Amino acid sequence: MIAVITGDIINSRNEPANKWLSNLKKILASVNSTPKYWEIYRGDSFQLQTTPEAALLICIRIKASIKQINGLDVRLAIGIGEKNFDAERITESNGEVFINSGYAFDHLLKKQSIAIKSPWKAIDDEFNISIPLALLTMDYWTANSAEFVSVSIENPESTQKDLGNLLNISQAGISKRGKRSGFEEIIKFEQHYRQKIDEKINQP
Q: In sequence order, what are the residues at sequence separation of 6 or more whose Cβ sits closer than 8 angstroms to the Cβ of residue 138?
């Protein structure tokens, strides 16, 4: 059982690719190797293979990275399932997981920027209702809020003082950015997702 994230950059034509491409590649490369497990195609579209448990956190990381550039956002479809044909390039592989990711991208992203399609209806029903609630915050991150989320996820053991040093702002400023970004609540939501997916994968 694996996950495939299919995504594209919203409003990519409004900004030069060099403003967002290196950040996107950095995240994708930190998860897996290219082109077997991730690939960018058609300029601003991409696919990434990961584990089902990690998929939502990776989506949050990608969104936070892209939203640091004013006017840009990203659509992300999580598909979970089996891979039946393992090609040398992810865009040439196929199976249930790719069908699910493609379905979520084509049909579930019309009114929200992150969606999921899995083999489990209960998971899809729960998270395609709860993800839009989290997006009420994430879709409106400012560049500063998105930067705070990115740095916080990449440095999970850091204190507020450490984060302040990394972002060159005061500890009080870090606290304000954390509250504005809804970071604590979003991470609790991600942990709930991770737990539910883990239970499904490991159920007898």
A: 60, 63, 67, 113, 182, 186
CA distance 174 to 159: 10
Enumerate the β-bridge partners of residue 117: 79
- Written as one letter, the residue type at 46 is F
CA 71 to chain centroid: 18
For 177, the token pair is 């950015």
Strands 45-50 and 73-81: unpaired
Q: Over the stretch 133-178, which tens digit does the pLDDT of each residue have?
A: 999 999 999 999 999 999 999 999 988 899 999 999 998 899 999 9
Q: Which residue in this structure is represented by tokens 């996107």?
A: 24
Residue with tokens 């883990």: 198
Is 143:70 a contact under the CB 8 Å cutoff? yes
Residue 19 backbone dihedrals phi, psi, to 5 degrees: -80, -30
- 97, 80 contact by CB (below 8 A): yes
Q: How far is CA 54 from CA 4, 87, 110, 147, in A?
A: 11, 22, 24, 20
DSSP symbol at 19:
G
Question: For residue 19, what pLDDT band results from cuts at 50, 70 and 90?
Answer: confident
Distance in angstroms (rounded) separating the CA atoms of residues 160 and 97: 39
